[in-house]
């Protein structure tokens, strides 16, 4: 029996009866379509199928909510990974990576006579000079940098992190969005602010706050803390800063600044030597003879070529004699060092060194006989007739001996505690 109670249609059109085909009317087709539609609705739109679809949507909503919670929970770690430490040009090399229970630290070192740039995009960046050594914690909202040695220029973008800390020994520098520089050597630390605000703790009992164009120097050996003002950033070069401090008559700060240049790694060895020679000449013109001697000595230590070292050592000895007088044991040792190691190039320097070394021995002689031995030894070692005659006058009895150049020099320069009794008797 036909399931839908309709007439059966022949399989082949050739065998169909035309009279019966005409009886196949449109109302019957509509009835068939309605029955098929009703059957489909019963199969696919029952309450059971609706419940299944509701379960599917509920499962999808729960999964989406769980993913959202996971994203919120892991947002900070993902944010840390999206700000890696960037280096430029391969100039900065990673020396080591140390792991701690809390985090990993990266140690960097900049090769000599190079510049290294390190930073995190849209947060902070720094520029380190040659031979700078520093350790950086992984990028986070609380960034920390340890400076072991060298000069670093920092640029911190405001309102991107909770804090930025620079650690130098027991000193702690806290940054509040700014542009500043930090330089550390074996003996001192310099912190200079160009924009924003920086605080320094650990140097004194109270926290030190620095505003733009303010600096602070901390001496590690004595613990002395010295604050000072700085010129505009356009005049931050050494020669411009020198002129700015000279105009303001900040002599003490200027001498300290020039002395620190000799230890600074911001400049090459040759540049530091030139600065020391210029500083020695300037201090001599302004009658700062002790400072002039110190700068001459630093120029000698920085000289690389043997010819330069010969000349710088003799100049240091001359400056020492001008500052402390020849009776100083240290000055005599400089002349003797020149005679031992560097006397083969310049005969004039050699003659002066012989003369002043002998003068020192004569002033320290316990008796006139011992002084005569020193003078005779000097005459044998050098052919400098002028200085030999001047030394012989000291030991030659004559009425006008008190007016001899040696006696005049002793009365004018030599401290009394160095004058032996026989010299006082000769130079009445």
Secondary-structure map:
Blueprint: H1 18-23, H2 26-44, H3 47-73, H4 75-81, E1 86-87, E2 93-99, E3 104-109, E4 116-120, E5 124-128, E6 133-136, E7 142-156, E8 163-168, E9 171-175, E10 179-184, E11 188-195, E12 198-201, E13 208-210, E14 214-219, E15 225-229, H5 238-247, H6 251-261, H7 269-285, H8 289-302, H9 306-324, H10 329-341, H11 347-364, H12 368-381, H13 385-395, H14 405-412, H15 421-426
Parallel strand pairs: 7-8
Antiparallel strand pairs: 1-4, 2-3, 3-6, 4-5, 5-7, 6-7, 7-10, 8-9, 9-12, 10-11, 11-14, 12-13, 14-15
Helix pairs in contact: 6-7, 7-8, 8-9, 9-10, 10-11, 11-12, 12-13
Structure description:
The chain is an alpha+beta fold. The chain has helices spanning 18-23, 26-44, 47-73, 75-81, 238-247, 251-261, 269-285, 289-302, 306-324, 329-341, 347-364, 368-381, 385-395, 405-412, 421-426, and strands spanning 86-87, 93-99, 104-109, 116-120, 124-128, 133-136, 142-156, 163-168, 171-175, 179-184, 188-195, 198-201, 208-210, 214-219, 225-229. It is built from 15 helices and 15 strands. The protein has a 15-stranded mixed sheet that branches. Helix 6 runs antiparallel to helix 7, helix 9 (306-324) runs antiparallel to helix 10 (329-341) and helix 11 (347-364) packs antiparallel against helix 12. The chain is rod-shaped, with a radius of gyration of 45 Å. Residues 1-7, 78-83 and 398-402 have low confidence and may be disordered.
């Amino acid at each position: 029996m036909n399931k839908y109670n309709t007439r059966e249609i022949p399989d082949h059109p050739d065998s169909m009866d035309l009279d019966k085909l005409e009886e196949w009317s449109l109302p019957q087709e509509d009835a068939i379509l309605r029955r098929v539609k009703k059957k489909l609705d019963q199969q696919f739109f029952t309450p059971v199928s609706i419940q299944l679809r509701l379960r599917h949507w509920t499962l999808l909503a729960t999964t989406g909510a769980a993913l959202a919670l996971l994203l919120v929970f892991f947002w900070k770690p993902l944010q840390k990974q999206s700000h890696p430490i960037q280096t430029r040009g391969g100039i900065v090399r990673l020396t080591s990576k140390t792991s701690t229970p809390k985090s990993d630290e990266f140690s960097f070192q900049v090769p000599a006579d190079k510049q290294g740039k390190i930073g995190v995009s849209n947060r902070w960046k720094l520029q380190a000079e040659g031979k700078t050594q520093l350790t950086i914690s992984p990028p986070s909202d609380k960034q920390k940098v340890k400076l072991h040695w060298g000069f670093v220029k920092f640029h911190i973008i405001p309102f991107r992190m909770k804090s930025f800390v620079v650690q130098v020994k027991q000193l702690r520098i806290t940054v509040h969005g700014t542009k500043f520089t930090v330089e550390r050597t074996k003996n001192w630390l310099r912190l200079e602010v160009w924009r924003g605000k920086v605080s320094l703790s650990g140097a004194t009992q109270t926290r030190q706050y620095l505003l733009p164009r303010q600096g602070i120097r901390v001496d590690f050996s004595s613990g002395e803390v010295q604050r000072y003002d700085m010129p505009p950033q356009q005049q931050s070069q050494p020669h411009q800063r020198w002129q700015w401090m000279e105009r303001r008559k900040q002599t003490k700060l200027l001498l300290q600044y020039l002395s620190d240049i000799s230890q600074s790694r911001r400049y090459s060895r040759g540049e530091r030597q030139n600065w020391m020679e210029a500083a020695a000449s300037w201090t001599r013109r302004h009658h700062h003879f002790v400072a002039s001697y110190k700068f001459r000595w630093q120029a000698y230590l920085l000289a690389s070529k043997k010819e330069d070292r010969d000349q710088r050592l003799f100049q240091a000895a001359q400056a020492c004699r001008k500052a402390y007088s020849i009776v100083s044991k240290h000055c005599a040792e400089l002349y003797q060092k020149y005679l031992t190691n560097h006397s083969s190039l310049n005969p004039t320097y050699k003659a002066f060194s012989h003369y002043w070394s002998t003068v020192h021995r004569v002033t320290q002689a316990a008796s006139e006989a011992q002084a005569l031995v020193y003078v005779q030894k000097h005459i044998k070692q050098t052919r400098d007739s002028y200085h030999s005659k001047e030394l012989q006058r000291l030991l030659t009895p004559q009425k006008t001996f008190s007016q001899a150049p040696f006696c005049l020099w002793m009365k004018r320069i030599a401290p009394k505690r160095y004058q032996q009794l026989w010299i006082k008797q000769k130079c009445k």
